[in-house]
Each structure stands twice: as C-alpha cells, then as structure tokens.
Specification:
Blueprint (H helix, E strand, L loop, with lengths): L9 H15 L9 E6 L5 H17 L2 E6 L4 H13 L4 E5 L6 H10 L4 E4 L8 E6 L1 H15 L3 E6 L6 H20 L2 E7 L6 H14 L6 E3 L3 H13 L9 E3 L3 H9 L4 E4 L2 H16 L9 E5 L4 E8 L2 E3 L4 H6 L6 H4 L12
Parallel strand pairs: 1-2, 1-3, 3-4, 4-5, 5-12, 6-7, 6-8, 9-10
Antiparallel strand pairs: 10-13, 11-12
Helix pairs in contact: 2-10, 3-4, 5-6, 7-8
Length: 351
C-alpha cells in the first residue's frame, strides 16, 4: 500500500507524524531557578529572621534557595560562596562579613557569569548590586533622636564592625548631627570605640571602661545598632544609669523594642526587613533570568574604593516609645505580648 492511494503526499504524512510525537511526548520542564544565600552569621537575630523571610519568599516565587552560615568568618564565607558556585546557583545574595574580602567571592561568581546582590552590607566589587536601607540616613535619625533628649552634654560614641562598610555610613550619619554641636562646644565627645562583628560584649566593655574613666559622668551614648546598644544599656544598668542616659540603635530587634518600652533605649531605626528580603529575592530571580531588576532606584558610591553600583534603597522609620505600638505591633513586626512583656499589663497600649 502506498500513501498516494489515499491521496496523501509523503510530506503531509511526516508532518502528521511529527505533530503526533509532540502531543504524546512529555514536554521538558523548565529548569527551576536556584538562589544561593551566603549569610555572615545566623547568631544575630535579624539575619536568622531574614533567612526565614527569604525562604518563604522563594517558596512563593517557585524557586529553590540554598543557605550557608559563615559564623562570622570572612574566609569561611568565601569558601562557602565557592561551594555555592560549584553547585550551580543562578544568582547569589551575600550578607558580607567583610566588605573587602567578600569582593573575592563576587569576583569568583562573576567569572562564572553568576550575578550577585550585596545584601544590606556593601561589597567592594563593581559587579554587585547593592540592596539596603540608606545607612547614612539611619545614622542621622539615630543621633537626632538622642540629641533631642540631650542637646548639650558629654557624649560617648560606639561604632559597629570596622570591616563593615555600613558601620562607616552609619557613623557619617551620626556625625552629620553631632559634629556641628561638637564644633560649637555644646557636645563634648569623650571618646570613640569600634566593636568587631558589632559585638554587644565589646560595647559593654567599652562603656564600662568609659564610665569608670569619667566617673559615670556621661550624658548620652550614641551606638550603631541594637546589639551594641544592648551592651551599652547593660553597662549603664550596672551603675544605675539605664533610662537616665539616652542611647540608640537600629534594626528594631525584639530586645531593643522591649528596652524602648521600658525606657532604657531611646530609639531604634525600624528597617522593615520583610520589605528588604522581599526586594532582594525578587531582584535575585530577575538577575537569574538575565533581567535588570526593575526596582533599582539609586547608586551606591564609594569614592575611596572607586566603586559605583546600582542600588535598591528601602525606607526607614525611627521608633521611639511614642510610636512603638503603632509601628512595630500594629505593623505586625513583633507581637504586643512580646514587646511589652516587661511592662505591667495594665500599662499596655490598646487600640
């Protein structure tokens, strides 16, 4: 029997056979995107929280995510980044322990065509996209809240990690407020100390030493995050000065919010990490797909390092005793019973 008997050409039959094969054969599923997330340390409350937020967002987006924890070791972090590259991740989010050292990790990824996001800590490599809050503004709002409480007096300054560019940006914001008052003589700066890895324990020791050296005659302490503020408040508490000497932090950690409710910490800058983690994961997926993130809204520039990077900046909110309930509790960041657990229940806010 020939095809011509039925009036069918060979070409027509081949087309029919091809179409039948494409209908019956299963289509190859598109390869899922995998995002690698290198975290400098999960021992800090905020990074553990953001790991969970990123995992949740990845599930919503239908992508895989692989996390590593460097336990505050910058060389371990680069080794873990190398391992993530070897596993074939499509994009990397890096929370750097050391802004300089992590640049080597970005260079390794870039050489393999893997795009990188510097998450909330700048990395000194031009191929990284910076996603963060405006750290200069964060520092400005922290110092401003303290100065409003003590416009004149004897100040002590506590910095973050000297290997983290954010610490310098926060300091810049602090001194936008403080330096004019130092120059005018309204504020006397008694000393400055940095805290490796933003260590609360180092902050505690620095403030203990400062209180001893100045016979407790310190009117305000400007700290650089909630962890260092916690160390400062502990040292103040030992001298019966907690709540009498204003101090500040950032991140709205639960323990910091509790201190604000109690009156032992003046302000924390609320950086809504839910928004930040969401933005980072969305941007990482776009980068993995070969797209430029649609939410890029600025530039990170470090003239000293000769770095200019695309950036995504997220808004911040200063939180004090006056707006703590509205912003943190009603905003769903922490629970009422957790924030006010150390306050008599009849003094809890309502509404």
């Amino acid at each position: 029997m020939t095809f011509k008997r039925f009036g069918l050409g060979v070409g027509f039959v081949l087309v029919v056979l091809f179409l039948s094969m494409t209908i019956t054969m299963p289509a190859f599923a598109a390869q899922r995107v995998t995002i690698g997330v290198s975290i400098r340390s999960l021992s800090e409350e905020r990074w553990a929280r953001e790991r969970a937020l990123m995992a949740e967002k990845a599930e919503q987006l239908g992508v895989d995510v692989v996390f590593t924890d460097a336990n505050n070791d910058e060389f371990v972090q680069n080794s873990q980044i190398e391992n993530l590259i070897a596993r074939g991740v499509d994009a990397l989010i890096i929370i750097a322990r050391n802004s300089d050292v992590a640049a080597n990790g970005v260079a390794m990824a870039s050489s393999e065509g893997i795009p990188c996001i510097a998450y909330d800590v700048a990395i000194y490599h031009p191929d990284a996209i910076y996603i963060s809050f405006d750290s200069v503004r964060v520092g400005y709002e922290m110092a401003k809240a303290v100065v409003e409480q003590v416009p004149k007096g004897r100040y002590f300054w506590i910095g973050g990690s000297p290997t983290d560019d954010n610490a310098y940006l926060v300091r810049k914001g602090h001194f936008q407020v403080l330096q004019p008052l130092i120059d005018s003589g309204d504020i006397k700066l008694l000393g400055e100390q940095w805290c490796d890895a933003w260590s609360p324990e180092e902050a505690l020791k620095h403030v203990e030493n400062a209180l001893t050296a100045h016979a407790n005659q310190i009117d305000a302490i400007v700290c650089s995050n909630d962890g260092t503020a916690g160390g400062a408040v502990q040292a103040l508490k030992e001298q019966g000065l907690a709540g009498k000497v204003p101090t500040c932090g950032q991140d709205a950690d639960l323990v910091a919010c509790q201190r604000i409710a109690e009156g032992t910490q003046t302000v924390s800058i609320f950086k809504d990490v839910r928004v930040l983690a969401d933005a980072a994961m969305n941007a990482a997926v776009e980068l993995a797909q070969g797209k430029r993130p649609a939410t890029i809204n600025g530039k990170y520039v470090n003239a000293q390092k000769g770095i200019e990077q695309d950036a995504i900046f997220v808004e911040v909110v200063p939180v004090t005793k006056e707006n703590l309930y509205e912003v943190i509790v009603k905003g769903g960041f922490h629970k009422l019973e957790d924030v006010y657990r150390n306050i008599p229940r009849d003094q809890w806010p309502t509404g």
